[in-house]
Design a protein that fits this description.
- Two copies of one chain form a homodimer.
- Chain A is of the alpha/beta class.
- The first copy, chain A, is built from 13 helices and seven strands.
- The first copy, chain A, has helices at 25-37, 57-69, 86-98, 117-131, 144-147, 153-162, 177-187, 202-207, 222-230, 237-251, 256-267, 285-297, 305-316, and strands spanning 8-11, 42-43, 104-106, 138-142, 167-172, 193-196, 212-214.
- Chain A has a seven-stranded parallel β-sheet with strand order 2-1-7-6-5-4-3.
- In chain A, helix 1 packs antiparallel against helix 13 (305-316), helix 2 (57-69) runs parallel beside helix 3 (86-98) and helix 3 crosses helix 4 (117-131).
- The termini of chain A are far apart.
- The mean pLDDT of chain A is 97.
- At the A-B interface, helix 3, helix 4 and helix 5 of A face helix 3, helix 4 and helix 5 of B.
């Protein structure tokens, strides 16, 4: 039996690294707790913005265990578990389910391009069958701009038919509202939970029958985004949406992942948070200047973050 | 100090799977030995055609050890070791070097698209530095149609400057002769070994200063391809090249990886060899018919393969 479904605003939590590029579990826990206290209903750890594909399977397993040991409830977690290699996806998914996580967010295998829906169906089906656990709530991760391997409407329909109890929903990071609308129109009424992949589409997604968003900017602006989620039926909804969209545009005007980490480092008063693993690179000075100038025009703030990270930085130093 | 450099025809060896999709080491060893006896000077195991990114790190390590234990010389091996995650690339590369492999063929981290040369430089540099072994001969793997992350001329130059003893060459699978030519013109004279990524470009590559090819079709047609390599300066070279190009075109007219496995299964009289891991899928009946009809027009043969695989199939049954 599946656990209660996640709704609302989820952050694909960025993964902090120490100077030697090893995973910094202390800072990660500090940031996760701040997110849950400031608007995130859940955490989509190990997503694209988490540099999850730059982590080994063992690093992901250990970091999830550190998070749980620090007292974060697994009912708030939707870890990313989709890898190129079937044994890796099975191992991570089984570990998440056995840890009690609310769900998993699964990329298709993304090395081979132009693969058939038959091959992708088999890829997801093998994971469901091999994990073989009725607690599994699998969210499909559609992000063609990065993975370059799309999840088609036909594939969703086939997976839902084969595994109605396990296929729980989707994160649509296509950036194409027409696709999100088609997914909503075809599947939302049947209990398939649609998360927009950016808060830019949050209000449209809620009006279309979706359940929230899983968004990069949730890492730094969770309160205002959650405010839109909670008030999407109010008279102020469009104005509130306009505000979070404007902030998003400032952040996505520069490379997103280093930008998110620089924002947390700056507003959390913790310079060590900014490190990225290759192949990502730090922002240039020009990008940094543009980013923070933009945020000042938005009167951007991250209340309480410095306090939340202070202890963590000291522990990991 | 590096070992003797590989030259000639290398096959990116396909990886056989048992019915339960586990790796079939027995069949793999049988096929590898046949390749080395029939025209391949080396084996680029764990390449794109090997479904290597569909294998876990542990599966790759174990399979390499099985191959070495079966008596295949590491001086003939150039395993693929480039993964999305730095710790995985370091682990596989160190294992290959410590096993005495002649070189490693390294994909760039391929999840994130549009990354900077700075980020890619750091990705390769971290592997070289962390492996920290002068025996390392690193071949860059440029395959933009699949990885979608190219290796630019500028990146090659920067890596050669920083690590002249470790950066040994490239496999160019761009399918773009102009790119291969530019790589040859810029770097071949300095001892940077250029392998064409398809035998279609073998003769041009040799005439331009290259050292051979690492080609999918090396799995099934190694003898004739090696014959072009050995006779590239002869009067018959263009005619010989025309023959292997014609055979290549038959194979690449259908999805290559399942096609290679079906050819080995058919000509090796070992039906179990055809299995692929998802997200790949078996050929359709139509594709299969087209493939084998085409091969018959080429008077295609794989002498001795059935014998080489017979014992292996029995052991793995």
């Amino acid at each position: 039996m599946q656990r209660q479904r996640l709704k609302g605003v989820l952050a694909p939590v960025v993964t902090p690294f120490k100077r030697d590029l090893s995973v910094d579990a202390e800072r990660f826990v500090g940031h996760c707790k701040w997110l849950l206290d400031h608007g995130c209903s859940g955490l989509a750890i190990f997503g694209t913005n988490s540099e999850a594909n730059s982590l080994s399977v063992d690093e992901r397993i250990e970091l999830l265990e550190r998070l749980l040991a620090a007292g974060v409830a697994p009912s708030r977690l939707m870890p990313g578990t989709g890898c190129c290699a079937l044994p890796d996806s099975v191992k991570l998914t089984a570990h998440a389910v056995n840890s009690g996580c609310a769900g998993v967010l699964m990329l298709p295998p993304f090395y081979y391009k132009g693969v058939s829906d038959e091959g992708l169906f088999r890829a997801f089906a093998e994971v469901v069958e091999r994990v073989g656990d009725r607690r599994l709530a699998l969210y499909l991760y559609h992000i063609p701009p990065v993975a370059q391997v799309p999840i088609s409407l036909g594939l969703i329909a086939r997976l839902l038919k084969a595994y109605p109890e396990s296929i729980a929903g989707i994160k649509d990071s296509s950036g194409d509202w027409n696709n999100t609308k088609a997914v909503l129109d075809n599947f939302a009424a049947g209990g398939f939970d649609v998360f927009a992949g950016s808060e830019v589409f949050l209000l449209d997604n809620m009006r279309g029958g979706g359940v929230g968003c899983i968004t990069a900017t949730g890492n730094v602006n969770p309160g205002p985004i959650d405010h839109v989620f909670r008030n999407w039926q109010s008279a102020q909804a469009d104005a509130l949406q306009g505000e979070i969209t404007a902030t998003r545009k400032v952040v996505q005007a520069v490379p997103m992942i280093p930008a998110l980490k620089e924002i947390i480092a700056r507003y959390g008063e913790d310079a060590g948070f900014a490190t990225v693993r290759p192949p990502l690179a730090a922002l240039t000075e020009e990008e940094r200047t543009k980013l923070f100038a933009g945020l000042r025009t938005r009167e951007f703030a991250m209340p309480g973050l410095a306090g939340a990270l202070q202890g963590a930085a000291a522990l990991s130093a």
